[in-house]
Write a structure and sequence with these properties.
single chain; 193 residues; mainly alpha; 3 helices; elongated; cytoplasm
Length: 193
Amino acid sequence: MDDVEITDVDENGDALPEVDAEEPKRPPRELPAVGLLAGELVWTHGRYLLPALAALLALLVYLANRRTRPHPASAPQDAEAVVRRQEAMEASRRRMQREQDAKAAVFREKRKQQEEEKRRQKIEEWDSMQLGKSFKGASGPLRNRDEGAPSGSAAKPKSDKKPLRSSEYSPLSGEGGGSCSWRPARRGPSSGG
């Protein structure tokens, strides 16, 4: 039994190297020259390449969408559909024009009424000014009271109200009583020197 040797084989039947055997050290893989050039290019000009690639991607997406979408001008149109659409647009235009004309007529009528009211007020003011009354157009009760009494004998009613404050009250001096008094500030520095 000593002459039997056991070896490990892989799927193809080739002998696998022994685990204890020293494997020859391979040199580290180096990038090919093209990879080095691309890495250096990205390292030095990356800030320009990234926006350029984003713009290129956006352009490609736009062109792909444009190619798949049918153009309305190139699609064959039915002559009857075009005529119906134009007639509908014309009917809509006529309807909107009628609405606008009605609004304009209402506006003109309101403006005419306002002008008539202003003219009437000016005539009333002129008449009252000619009669020697108030320029602003006296109201009805005031006009009747003035007409009933002679102009010289119209006496104003005397009020029996008490004045709000005494005649010697001065808000700047603080005299005349009150819960607080105000005095002007001193001149000069606040620290006192």
